[in-house]
Amino acid sequence: MMSITMPSGPIAPVFSGHTILVVDDQAQVRSLIRQILEPRGALILEAANGSKALAIRERHQGALSLAIVDFLMPGLNGLDLAAQLSREVPGLKILYMSSAIESIAMESLLRQAPELVLLKPFSPEELVARVSSLLGG
User: Fold this and answer.
1) pTM of the predicted model, to two decimals?
2) What distance in Å separates the CA atoms of residue 119 and residue 99, rounded to the nearest whole number?
3) Every domain of the chain and the residues it spans
4) Fewer Cβ in 10 A, N or C end of the chain?
5) What Rg value do the Cα atoms of the chain yield, rounded?
6) Fold of 19-134
7) C-alpha to C-alpha distance for 81 and 54, rounded to whole angstroms
8) pLDDT, tens digit, for every residue of 10-67?
C-alpha cells in the first residue's frame, strides 16, 4: 500500500493544460496519481484496464499529453495498450509503471529507456519529476 504526504503550502500548476490518462487495475494507484498530479494542474482521466482506457480515449474530445500505464494488467497489457494509443494519438508520451521487473520486455525497456519506467512504489517527487521530464517541463 502506498501512502503519500502532500506538501504544505501552495503547489505550482506546472502541468496546467495537460491531460493525463492513468491506467492501472488498482484503484489505489490511480487515486494516488490523481492526488499528486491534479493539484499541479493536470486533468486526470482514469481507467482500470486497457479496454476502458481505449474507450475513454475515444470519448475524450481534447488532446492527451501523457498516458501512465501499468505494465502488467489483466487483458490488454501496458505494452500493447501503449502501442495502440500511440497509433491513435501521434506524439503521445507514455510512462510505464511496474511493481517489479517481471518480464523480458520490461527488462529490455528498463535497459533501453529507463526514463520511461516508474517502479512501484514511487514517491510523489519521483512521479512529478518523471512526468515533468516527459512533458518537457
Assistant:
1) 0.90
2) 6
3) 19-134
4) N
5) 14
6) Rossmann fold (3.40.50)
7) 8
8) 688 899 999 999 999 999 999 999 999 999 999 999 999 999 999 999 999 999 999 9
